[in-house]
Amino acid sequence: KRPKNFPPGPPALPILGNILHLRIQNPLEDLERLRKSYGNVYSLFIGPNLAVVINGVKVMKEAIVTKATDFAGRPQDLFINDVTHRKGVILVDYGTSWREHRRFALMTFRNFGLGKKSMEERIHDEIQYIIKTLDKNIGKALSPQVMFHNAASNIICQVLFGTRFEYDDDFIRVTVRCFTEISKITNGPWAMLYDSFSFIRNLPLPFNKAFRNVETMKNLLICLVNEHKKSRVPGEPRHFVDCYLDELEKRPDDPSFSEDQLIMYALDLHFAGTDTTSNTLLTGFLYLMNHPHIQERCQQEIDKVLEGKDRACFEDRHNMPYMQAVIHEVQRIANTVPLSVFHRTTKDTELMGYSLPKGTIIIQNMNSVLEEEGQWKYPHEFNPENFLNDQGEFVKPEAFMPFSAGPRMCLGEGLARMELFLIMVTLLRKFKFIWPEDAGEPDYTPLYGITLSPRPYRMKVQLRLSQ
Ligand code: HEM
C-alpha cells in the first residue's frame, strides 16, 4: 500500500509490485507512458521497494538541487550494493565516507598535473592512437565502437594508473567482459528476483556470476596497485592511485580510507568513465555523418580558430560557439545515462506537495528534461540551434542536465567535457566522416542499458585537405 499523501501510480501486485508495468529490456517508453497517466511525480513499487519517478526541470530541480541533501542518498539494499560491497563512490550512501571520497577525487582531478603531465596532455596522447587507427582506414569503412571504447577506457586508466593498455591486453579484456556481464545481470530479471526474494540470495543462481566478476576485477587491480607501490615515491604522486596512497598515509586513523576502498574506487571511476564517454562520442559521429552540413560548419569554425596552431586546447572552446553547441546537442540527444543513478531520500521530506518517507528510491527520467517541451527550441530533433541565441552565441539552457545536478552530480563532468571537446575537434579537423553508401537509412533508436548506446554502425573516413 502506498503511504498517505504519496505520489500516485499504477496499482501494484503483492511481492512483484509494478515490475509487470515495465519491460525489463527497455523500460523507458513505459516510464514515459506512465508519466502521461500520472503526471511528473509518480510512484512505482520495484519489488517491495517504494520508488518515485521524477520528470521535468521543475520537479528535478526542487528535488536534487533545492532539497539537495534530502535527496542525496543511494539505495543500499539492492543487488548491486551487495555486488560492490557498499564501497567506492557511485553507489555509496550520503555520509562521511562518500563526502570525503568525492571531495578527494574532485581535488585530485582539479590539480591534475601529476607526473608533470596535465589531463589535456594525457587526452591528446590517447587521441594519437585514434588517429593512427583512422589513418589506417582512409577510404574504407570501419566500425568505431572498439576504438572509442578503448580510447575512453585508456584516458581514465591514464588518470588512475598513468598507464594505457592495448585492446587485447588481459587487464582490459577481462575488465570489459566482467563489466558487461555485471551490467547485463544488474539490468535483468535475476537482479530483480534477488531484490524481491531474499531467501534466494544464497542459492547457486546465475546472479552469482556478478559477485565472481567483481572478485576477478578486484584481484587484477590489487596486482596493478602492488606493482605501482614498488616504484612509488611518497609525496611525489604520478597518478590517482599514488595520490590515494599518499592520502592514506595522512589519515592512518580514518577508517573510511583504505586500500580496499581504493580498489573499489578505481573500479567505479573506470566503469563510470568508459561507456558514458564512448557512447556519447559514437552518438556524435552517427549524427554528424548523417547531417553533413553540420559537420562542415564545425570544420569551418575549427579551421578558422586553429589556423596556425598545431593542436586544439580546451580553452579554444570559448572561441568555438558552434562546436560547443554541437557537442552539447549531441549530449542532449544521446541521453547517455537515461535513468541517472538511483537516488534515495535521506529523511522524511516533501516534493511538489507530496510526502516522501525516508528511504524512498528516486528515479530521474532524464529524457523528460532533455526533451522537455517548452525548454528547447527543437526538443525532438537534432539541432545545434538549441544552444545558440539570435547572435549565434553559445547558451546553455537550464534543462541541459545530462550529468544530473546537485551534490551527486557527475564527478567526472570536467574530464568528460574535456575529452568530448578535444577528441571531436581534433578528429573533425583532420578527417571527414561519411555514412557508407551501402549502410542504408541510419537507425537512431539506441540500445538500452545503464548507458544508452547507438546501434553498431560503420563510418567511412577521408583525409581532409583544407587544413
Ligand atoms: C559523457 C559522459 C558522462 C555522463 C553523461 C555522465 C553522467 C552521469 C550521471 C547522470 C551521474 C549520476 C548523477 C546523480 O546521481 O545525480 C553520474 C555520476 C557519476 N559519474 Fe559520470 N558521466 C559521464 C562521465 C564520467 C566520467 C568520465 C567519470 C570519471 C571520472 C564519471 C564519474 C562519475 C561518478 C564517480 C559518479 C558518481 C557521483 C556520486 O555519486 O557522487 N562520469 N555521471
What does the model show?
This protein has 467 residues and is an alpha+beta fold. It is 47% helix and 7% strand. It is built from 15 helices and 9 strands. The strands form 3 sheets. The protein has a 4-stranded mixed sheet with strand order 1-2-7-4. The chain has a 3-stranded antiparallel sheet with strand order 3-9-8. The protein starts with 27 loop residues before the first helix and ends with a strand. The model has no long low-confidence stretch (mean pLDDT 93). Bound molecules: protoporphyrin IX containing FE. The site of protoporphyrin IX containing FE has 26 residues, from helix 11 and helix 15. It is found in: Membrane. Keywords: Heme, Iron, Membrane, Metal-binding, Monooxygenase, Oxidoreductase, Signal.
Write the layout of secondary structure elements.
Blueprint: H1 28-38, E1 41-46, E2 49-54, H2 56-66, H3 79-83, H4 96-110, H5 119-136, E3 141-142, H6 145-161, H7 170-186, H8 189-196, H9 208-231, H10 240-250, H11 259-290, H12 292-306, H13 321-334, E4 343-344, E5 349-351, E6 354-356, E7 361-364, H14 367-370, H15 413-430, E8 431-434, E9 459-463
Parallel strand pairs: 2-7
Antiparallel strand pairs: 1-2, 3-9, 4-7, 5-6, 8-9
Bound molecules: protoporphyrin IX containing FE (HEM).
